[in-house]
Amino acid sequence: MSFRCFRLVELAIASTVEFTNVKCTSLDPKFVEFEYCYLKSVNRSYKYLSLKTKMFLLPIPKPNVNIEFLKRFSGYKPFLYNITVDVCRFMKNPKSNPIAAYFHGFFKNHSNMNHTCPYNHDIIIDRLSISFMNQHLTEVLPFPIGDYLFQSNWIADGINRANVNVYFTLS
C-alpha cells in the first residue's frame, strides 16, 4: 500500500483600494464653504484624503446626511445602500442603525464628527488613509472589485447644503 503526500499551498489574494478623486461642493455658500478638499499622495503606499468645512450658521440645525454607494457599470449605478440618517439621533445611539455605523466607521477616527449634537464647529476629516479604507472595504465587509463612488449629501433644516463625493477603485 502506498500513500501520497500532498502539500497544501495557501494563496493570499489581497484586494486593494485606491482613491481616484474627491469632489466637495458647497450648494449654499452662505451656510458652508470648503476650506480644502483634496487627496494627497505622499508615496506609493501612503495616500490620504483631507477636507475642512467652514460653517457660517452655527450651531448646525437638524443635521441629516444622505449616503449613497454607487458602482460603475455603464456610468455610476446604485449599489447596495442609499440611506438618510438623522445625525443627532444616530450619534446618541450608534447601534440603532448598523448601516450608518458602518459608513461612520470609515471616518470617525479621522474626524471631529464623533460626538452628539449640537455641532457648533467646522467639520474636519484629517488624513483618512487609504490603508484604513482598504481594511474597511476588504475585511470588515468585502466588496467585489470595480470602480465605486461614495456620495454624501449634507442636509440642514431640510435643505441640501453640501455634497462630498469620493471616487475609488477596488482591485
From TrEMBL:
What domain of life does the native source organism fall in? Eukaryota
Q: Which InterPro entries does the annotation name?
A: DUF1091
Instruction: List the protein's name.
Output: Uncharacterized protein
Primary gene name? LOC108073658
